[in-house]
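U., I forgot to send this yesterday:
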Amino acid sequence: MEPVGDVANPASLDPESLGFMCGIEVHQQLATGKLHSRQPGELHDITIETLPDNWQRYYRKLRSSSGEGGAVDVAARFEARRNRSFVYCQAPNAGLIELDEQPPLPHDDDALDISLTVSGMLNARPAPLLQTMRKTVVDGSNTSGFQRTTLVATDGTLHTEGGPVGIDVLCLEEDSARKLDSELTPNGEVVTWNLDRLGIPLIEIATAPDVKTPDHAKQTSIALGRTLRDTRRVRRGLGSIRQDLNVSIMCGDRVEIKGCQDLEWIPKIIRCEMARQLHFYRLANKLRSSHGLPALSSDRREESPSISGEVEKILPLNLVDVSSQFSSCDAKRVKQGLESKSVMLALPLPGFNGLIGTKEFDTDGAQLPRLGRELAGAAKLAGVAGVYHSDELPAYGIGQEYVDATRDALNGVDAFVLCLAPKWQAELALESVLNRARLAFDRIPQEVRNVVIRKGSPEDGTTTPMRPLPGGARMYPETDIPPLVITKERWKNIMDKLPMTQDERKQRLSEYEISVDQQNQLLSRELDDDFISHSQGLPQKAWATMLLENEGDIGLMALVLAAKEEGHVTREGMVSLLKEFEGQNPSMAQLSSTAENLGLKPADASDLADVVAKVVADRLDFVKERGMGAMGPLMGLVMKECGGAADGKQVSALLREEIMRHV
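Result:
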């Protein structure tokens, strides 16, 4: 049956009727040193503008080579043609291993234990022998051209609100370098990387395609994140966890979407992808019908007759230099490009007039899918800033006369794409555009896509192409790291020490006399173990408040609170004592002596009562006029009279009692 649904209203698309399938990959940084180099895992918050001058820079180019089976991975082959070069900035925690100048060390023990722990929490089966593999990565984010990854466990189960989701694999791998800058040059793109993150351990968890709906995908991501945080041994903060979505509908194909850091956006990103796949299925059949070609099946499991030969005849590679037609164009970008010796090349797309599309929006405010965005995305992968196409012209300072002149140069072809760049780059870009235009006759290509980000957040849930979906030739064994046997004893030790779940921790906290808000905050900030281990003999609410409002040594905080309870320091003086003894291990006598010297010791109860009585007596008319409303102003006066050596709670009680005697 033909798929039903309105592309302009993605929220109305029915996942079940469209044959929706979705799996999730989560990549979580671990709070350890680096996986194969023993360098510290600290990150350096720098930009290209603040890059320290004393950081060494290394210049590299990567080239594709065949894998173990003799084949060159499709993604590697494409990247090699982009003619990119890379600059690697050596952060203080990047050594010879990060620079690919020294063989890697075996796995970091802590990282391996954490990955086995998560495997146990997901009821996954550990691999009896860990064989590290090399996974080809040629975007420059790994100096070696590959990422080391180790399969740790398989066949687990994650429990979510929407039902159980299978865990296909759990891997332990290295994180990549961080991109600092990207510059387009006449000789190709130059990308600058920071090596501080390269080699930090990541747990990668890939679910089975058991996610039922876009909302269930969000629930699954939340459940995965919660499981990882329950270990209390993973990194927290922006960028420490990343979600990738594998999405398809029956008339489309599998696409991997990266950049889904904000969980709230996951349902919208998925719905936009469903609409995109539905749109391009319909476009493919429209193109096929216009050329008398057999229709594409709505079920990708049914093999459709190959039409690649016919499509190549319809869309041959025929690039035409139209630079002379634009020699008098006043558009700033065109003028500057031609003056810098770039050329304007045209690619004819016969029969595509009106099918490339112009910018329109769906009911949720996201850009509707259109072929023009896909063609531009294909061109940008070749390193150009963008392309012009006939459906959007005249625009950008290119008037109708230049559109007509281009059509004349192309012998009247109705549709075309223009690219302004150095000749080699324009040719590569338009060849990529042509390949994507040919694919418009078929299902959407299997590829890796990236969420469009503007100002640090998703723009509207739409995506752009990054690279072809990698194939099996991407993986081959790592010969520098020996296989590691996971013994029954090691696995039993892991299973005997599995961490508490969030629900178990919440139940444990509920037994203490603290508020629900304090419970939630202690859990969220992972302070519940500290709260419980030092709570003996301390007022529980006050101890929770002390932990939540201060940072530093937990033992010192507990001791200062105990000093306050024993009358050695005022409530207001506790923060001063914490600062005074930061990094030290004082005795109670030292705390008491210092508090007295600093004027932080509570006033004698009888003296305090006399101060309160005097303050009230001096302002009796004010007290009779305001009643209990005088509490606030008089509190400040009493505290001032005591020079800070008074407990606010004690002052409040005495002041309330004294005021009530006079009203």
